[in-house]
Amino acid sequence: MLKFGYKASSEQFGPTELLGYARLAEECGFHSVWISDHFQPWRHTHGHAPFSLAWLGAVGAHTSRIVMGTSVLTPTFRYQPAIVAQAFATLGMLFPGRIVLGLGTGESLNEVPASGIEWPEQKERTARFREAIRLIRELWTKDRVSFEGQFYKTRLATVYDRPEIPVPLYIAGAGPFMAKLAGLEAEGFICTSGKKWELYTQTLLPNLAQGLEASGRAHSGTYEKLIEMKVSFDTDGARALADTKFWGALALTPQEKTDVEDPIQMERLADALPVERTASRWIVTTDPAEMAEKVGRYVDLGFNHLVFHAPGPDQPRFMRLFSERVLPLLRKRFG
After folding, report:
1. Among the options 11, 26, 31, 107, which is catalytic?
2. Domain 3-334: CATH class, spelled out
3. Pairing of strands 283-285, 224-233
4. Is residue 309 flagged as an active site residue?
5. Could you give the 3-state DSSP secondary structure of residue 287?
6. Please, which residues have CB within 8 angstroms of residue 16's CB and are 6 or more apart in sequence?
7. Global pTM value
8. Could you tell me the residue ranges of all domains in the chain?
9. Mean per-residue pLDDT for 220-235?
10. What pLDDT, in 10s, does the model give residues 153-202?
């Protein structure tokens, strides 16, 4: 079954606003709500960065149906993986079958300011990530865990409150190794739209398939291929285009932003981009059929969980327009 999700932009809105948006997403028929886990936002001016774990608890208490998850959280620097395991076990008990732990290797923007660390090379970040996943899995399945890793250690540690329905773990990736790792070790894969088409067809999905084949799940009907769809949809075309300006940082190349740790500097880099470039990551249109057709290309690739991220300040307007005019077309085409 094709699922539709809503991306709660913690970099753009405060926790109370986002809680209202999550409740509205459930009312509008979305299946899930996903929050980014940022310590600092992409922009200093009018930026936000509410604590995702506290927010997920509030959303669970104020909704009844939607699945909630992080897209994504980094379990290796700001958070010790044992604490991540404890937090999501508790959330899983409070909201059985409604919690997903989405994980990624992180960005210096979030990890360095909160910890004062020197941002390590990708090799170390990946090694820490794999070790953190092993520790989280052990704490979710075993008692009295004494873990002796290269980066993390526990001594006779037990997560005493664990849900009967295990919390699914999804891995985010933008390259071949992480895509394959998601197929090997996770219950789902997370990526984002708006990049070069060859990245999906020649790198991400083939490597994900290799990982699934190696883990014996190549034909599993339950594996989720989740993609954050960057969409700016409105009846006013100029408004839809202008809305993307807030998210100019997404159009920066990895080389331009990987080591940027200050939201003021990130904002300066993003604001220097022309609007045509800030809009390049987004599907921008006033035509429901065009939006459904362009979104449908990703479904044709095999993505089965579409999480819609809208850039504008009026999120209720987006959700109502999108759920009334675009989602019916997608349901009609894909079921």
Report:
1. 107
2. alpha beta
3. parallel
4. no
5. coil
6. none
7. 0.96
8. 3-334
9. 95
10. 999 999 999 999 899 999 999 999 999 999 999 999 999 999 999 999 99
Q: Which of 26, 31, 38, 224 is catalytic?
A: 38
Amino acid at 168: P
Q: Are 49 and 40 in contact (CB under 8 A)?
A: yes
**Distance between CA atoms of 194 and 246, rounded to whole angstroms?**
16
Placement of tokens 């989280």 in the chain? 136
Please report the sign of the dihedral spanned by the C-alpha atoms of residue 195, residue 201, residue 207, residue 212: positive
SS3 state at 130: helix
* Spacing of C-alpha 152 from chain mean position: 25
DSSP 32-73: EEEE---SS-S-STT-----HHHHHHHHHHH-SS-EEEES-B
Q: What is the pLDDT of residue 72?
A: 97
| Element holding 269 (H helix, E strand) | helix 263-271
Q: Rounded to whole angstroms, how far apart are CA atoms 335 and 332? A: 6
CA distance 159 to 142: 8
Active-site annotation holds for 38 = yes
The encoded tokens of residue 154 equal 């526990």
C-alpha dist (Å) from residue 50 to 12, 38, 210: 10, 8, 37
Q: Does the CA dihedral 249-250-255-260 come out positive or negative? A: positive
